[in-house]
């Protein structure tokens, strides 16, 4: 599941990553076959790593869990740790792996993209394609925007660069927000741009976590940036992008709630872009898991929800009853004392939540203790409250998760409430992914229930990408990165994938690219089991749409649904729009002499309302599958 507890370490943590990468080697650990059926094989293997951690100064890093070829796993560790592992009960052998390869920062690899093969090779890594990103600032000069290996822009490019810092990668920067500089103040915009088309950058990491080679989905594509904000008029930057000659647009913004298409500026601009052959990827919104909570519902855009990838920045809460609860933290300091400490939940009333806001801990003794807080919109502010009150660390429990409930049950069960935190570093290769991100907005579509939305899901959790500043106050490098989550992160993943497909298939129209992405999507995780939601139940179509993006399969779809721009007219008439309202969208006179129901639009998915008796209405969804 999506991580259900967050751990914020306010002082310092066990030295799990205190060595040079060159000192670590990958070892293959063969284990005795367990007796009986093991419910969670990954948790069993993690226990071996924890045992080594408790007997040494650092915790090995899980590299891979085997399920067929051997009973065991691969882990990165020191030679001394390998000797400790070899002496553990149940371990048959510990042998160094023959070749060690640096992992990427994960989501390209997780999506099946490999250097010098497959879609990356056949698309030339997106060469010649221009991705336009509309957001609120960017960081020219960041290594992710270097132009090594990137050719000059195609002759179709008509745009311009309004500030210094453009090159063959970042070919255009334009500001459409008067009175505000282009500087990226919160990092969101640099992050999304590099996710779509950032170039290769070695040794990308956040405080040593997630170390690898960072890149966007289309690393050799061109980028054009258009500054806009959710509060600004977005037609001018959209208009400029169309005029400039972009091929793909990535919009990690949208209305707070669904609007009729003739009132939706994104929908209107995207329809014109589609008419001009431009593919538009839009964020679905972060209002999940509430139903009917989508932004950007128009069928002329790809509406992208968020899922996990197979990386976690693992921390483990160990309760006094020896129960282990996994969470995540980007801050895993080197000398946090792992001794058991008192654990405080600073509310007595079961109906209230511990929001740990300003003043809430003034009369509670939390000095040197762990503090359990309930999730809020600003965990950083909560962490500062706990730190200023003298707390050693903060555990943040999501309100939809069982782990938080487990901790609260334990607190009620004893008068001596203690716990500790183990820092697990970067864990990769989890087979239970992808999973739905709990925050990802859900369908059905409010504006057009007969069109299944969202269209697709892609990585939007624990995404490591470019950041304008160092969160460690590191001044010796410009290669600054950070981890973020949201459908704003999944949207540029799909924009980059669309750029690869356009490069490999220049004759494909936006609707052909969308169809290829949707009809080849996967509904199962890497175990081959159904993708699950935040409740650990199979995710429904209103969460994940057609499923999880699968770029290698989208490169060779078995079925393509084509929609001509004029095909939308009878569909819009069927929604009850007047010819004048339709003209606002399609920018020409329209007649409603012909109408069609939503399900007859030649869209890659559809939803049909079925009635059972007179009481309830059910939705049956039909999704084309890859042959």
Description:
This protein has 627 residues and is of the alpha/beta class. It has 4 domains: 25-96, Alpha-Beta Plaits; 106-310 and 434-558, Rossmann fold (3-Layer(aba) Sandwich), CATH 3.40.50; 313-428, Glucose Oxidase, domain 1, CATH 3.50.30; 567-624, no CATH class. The protein contains 15 helices and 24 strands. The strands form 6 sheets. Strands 1-18-17-16-19-14-15 form a 7-stranded mixed β-sheet, sandwiched between helices. It is globular. The model is unreliable at 8-21, 98-104 and 614-627 (pLDDT under 50). One of its GO terms (cellular component) is extracellular region. It comes from Helianthus annuus (Common sunflower). One of its GO terms (molecular function) is serine-type endopeptidase activity.
First CA to last CA: what distance? 29 Å
Query: Rg from C-alpha positions?
Result: 25 Å
Q: What count of domains describes the coordinates? A: 4
What fraction of the residues are assigned to beta strands by DSSP?
15-25%
Topology, number of strands: 24
Strand order of the largest sheet: 1-18-17-16-19-14-15
- Give the overall silhouette: globular
Label the structural class.
alpha/beta
CATH class of the largest domain: Alpha Beta
Tally of individual helices: 15
Helix share bin: 10-25%
Give the biggest sheet.
7 strands, mixed
In the CATH hierarchy, the third-tier topology of the largest domain is known as Rossmann fold
Mean pLDDT: 84
> Poorly predicted ranges (pLDDT <50, ≥5 residues)?
8-21, 98-104, 614-627
Please name the CATH architecture of the largest domain.
3-Layer(aba) Sandwich
CATH superfamily of the largest domain: Peptidase S8/S53 domain
